[in-house]
Input
Amino acid sequence: MSGRRIRRIVVHCSAGPASQRAADIIAYHTRPVSRGGRGWKAAGYHYIVEADGTVVEAVGEEGVANGARGFNQDSIHICYTGGVDARGKAADTRTPAQKAALARLIAGIRKRRGALPAAGHRDLSPDRNGDGRITPDEWIKQCPCFDARAEYG
Ligand SMILES: [Zn+2]
Output
């Protein structure tokens, strides 16, 4: 297979309510900045997993999605809707359907592309103290609000 050399799967949350729809996230990412969007060429994630477990392909795997600066050329980005609780605090809000869909999606990608490691967006933060581990004090953001390496790595 030609095309992109994929090195990892990166797991994100949308940092919004779990009821968010994939179509709205895609529209927000690709709408011009002048109209309140991010103005990106493509959505920030390849796949978006909605609260009921529906998986929406937002960008084809051969395309580059704008999920994590410095890691986009060789990553597949997947996102579940949610990641904040009712008070707006970072929280693992994955529904059982989202958990099942994420596991199925990651297994499917690995079946097609080999045993890719999976990490959370926060695990890509810089290792500021150089101890070889990305610890909570080094996270540049909470995303995806759970330990994706422990669960899917
Ligand atoms: Zn993220």
Notes: The CA atoms of residues 93 and 138 lie 22 Å apart. The first strand starts at residue 8 and ends at 13. The mean pLDDT is 94.
